[in-house]
Write a structure and sequence with these properties.
- Helices cover about 70% and strands about 10% of the residues.
- By secondary structure, it is mainly α.
- Strand 1 and strand 2 form a beta hairpin.
């Protein structure tokens, strides 16, 4: 990263230029390229569009189902308790200790590579 400071009168101007490529942008670019490759290789694009539409409908239905469950008197409290317990377990199991974090990262990387077919 290259930084320049310039003073003009009573003002201070800072110019920062990034050098190199960050790993986050390269990851997002590889995901976009993978999706483009799948779109270009597919012979039945209508089916892919249909699957996308079905996904949007499923997301909408799930949101409405969650809203309906939230209106029930006891269920939201029970689900909130289950969520707190699961979050505590997940933190203890995967986030507190370094070997467990590395195991989690390896599992995530494997899942991503399996999903993208790499």
């Amino acid at each position: 990263m290259l930084t320049h400071f310039c003073e003009r009168g009573n003002r201070l101007a800072v110019v920062v230029k990034a050098m190199g490529e960050s790993s986050d942008s390269s990851t997002s670019l590889s995901v976009v390229k993978s999706v483009q490759n799948i779109w270009d290789k597919s012979e039945d694009r209508v089916a892919i569009i249909g699957l996308g539409f079905a996904g949007v409908v499923a997301l909408w239905a799930t949101a409405n189902l969650v809203t309906a469950i939230d209106k029930l008197p006891v269920i939201p409290s029970a689900l909130e308790f289950i969520g707190i317990v699961f979050s505590a377990w997940f933190t203890y199991r995967y986030l507190l200790f370094k070997p467990d974090r590395e195991e989690l990262f390896q599992s995530i990387k494997k899942s991503i590579s399996d999903t993208l077919g790499q």
